[in-house]
């Protein structure tokens, strides 16, 4: 129950970050960034595009991370989709791009770290980042940054160079925040396995003469 509450809190923090980015007219990386780009092009609500774009990544998650992680991730994605839908009812406002890039990046990085530490993700590159950390001990912040950079660069023709550079700043901040918590993420996601190994201490039984 405690983990679920922390995942919900993480989703809420990420929601604030996405709203900040959206009202700064810049994008972020991953499936969230792709979804924001689609909303700029089509005006389709972010909640719908975000949910649909994440569907293919669940196949990889089931095969490599297991059903429990996948279902928890699907739940987190659904919750985030519902939370971000609130943005449709907010009054129109704008945030300076530089402020939005840093503030939005900090919020999304904090929210993602909290979600990662409690056995879930927000789909897309998040799943791959956690898989590579678990399998090869790679920095999840760096993996996220590489994929996010690809998404942002491919979105520059939609948002322009200035907004694109601010978007790169945003994903840089996100990666730095996640990298700061990488040891906590690793420790909390591998803790159960360590406990199982230490469950039964060896008992020395002396041999009879």
Element-level helix/strand string: HHHHHHHHHH
What is the assembly state of the chains in this entry? single chain
Range of helix content: over 70%
What is the average per-residue confidence, as pLDDT, rounded to a whole number? Answer: 83
List unreliable stretches of 5+ residues: 192-197
- The amount of beta strand, in percent, is under 5%
Shape category: globular
Overview of the molecule:
The chain contains ten helices and no strands. The protein is globular, with a radius of gyration of 19 Å. Helix 3 (46-54) packs antiparallel against helix 5 (67-84), helix 6 packs parallel to helix 9 and helix 7 runs antiparallel to helix 8. The longest helix has 21 residues, at 2-22. 76% of the residues lie in helices and 0% in strands. It is an all-alpha fold and 209 residues long. It has one domain. Its main location: membrane. It is a multi-pass membrane protein. It is found in: Cell membrane. The chain crosses the membrane at residues 40-60, 67-86, 98-131. Keywords: Cell membrane, Membrane, Transmembrane, Transmembrane helix.
